[in-house]
Amino acid sequence: MATAGSRGDGMRRANLSLVLRTVHREGPRSRAALTEATGLNRSTIADLVGELQRAGLVVERASDAQGRVGRPSPIVEPDPRVVAVAVNPEVDALDIGAVALDGTLVARERLERSTLLTPERTVDLVETTLAAWRRGALADARIVGVGVAVPGPVRASDGLVREAPHLRWREAPLSGLMTDATTLTTHVGNDAALGALAEYLFGAARGARDVVYLNGGASGIGGAVIVGGALLGGAGGYAGEFGQNRPGIVDPADRRAVDGVLEDEVSRALLWEAVGLDGGDDVTLAAALASASTPSVRAEVERQRRILATALANAANVLNPAVIVLGGFLAVLAAHDLDGLDAAVRAQTMPACAEGLRLAVAELGEKRLLVGAAEAVFEAQLFPTR
Questions:
Q1: Domains observed in the chain
Q2: Which pTM does this prediction carry?
Q3: Average pLDDT rounded to a whole number, residues 66-86
């Protein structure tokens, strides 16, 4: 990448970022297709692709086109050896993955926990896992950074974890700790915000410009809002904490927590309690709920869905999104009867805001937070325009 400070160098950096971002987010493209997608001329595309190749960021392969007149344009794709390490600490496990620039999840390890992680222990486990991967799955990789998706508010300016209440973290300098231990630049963000980014770019919200995303995890419910294609951060970067909203509960019998917030009432822990299990991942939870036939389990699922529907209708009325995406255990609740939940949301939504509204479950499933954390690294490290 060009590093000089002239206006021309700035334009070149922007064009390099545009080409790399295009093949990363849209998939492999021929040089001809890149010319059309970017508006740059053929000779400029050839020059930029050559520089990206020399930088080890893209590779070219022969076109699969057969029988066409003329020489087929080579296919440009991200170099899969370029990797970001992605981390998601939760109350029940530490999820660590390695995501390649072409979107492949190269390695993953979920470390179950019986005690709460501290920031320091999180860093130690990532450092140990990464050292093993460098000798194995990532032996030939170029690791460009670490991204961490944290269940709590994170200060946008420096990645300070202001509070992850269920982990009992407060004012945790996780970015600095991780960078010091791994020698890799670290980017820390709120888990729901990073999940929203992943689903917006690669999943259920792809193509939409206005999105509400709610993420349900072991720590509770987080959320994020995308307006006009940009993540809504708020004054300090803390926007989207839907789990802390006071839920509208019509039937007092539905309330489980006195003066509770949404995540107290719509709760993964209460679902595990209903099926009589200690816990596990969302796939296990979905299977347990699907196989349960007792009235008490069905009643708990329906109770949570009623409260969730009102919360989603409130979000639709205030923000008028094109799509609402549900991830984690909220996706499990929604998938139980997506059409039914959609109808319950629309019944409480202004007709104008309900027009064109789509309710969806996260397409990236259990890897959404890792993909989002990796994307934060790629965006900061590989796509600078200044």
A1: 7-78 (1.10.10.10), 82-194+368-382 (3.30.420.40), 206-363 (3.30.420.40)
A2: 0.90
A3: 83
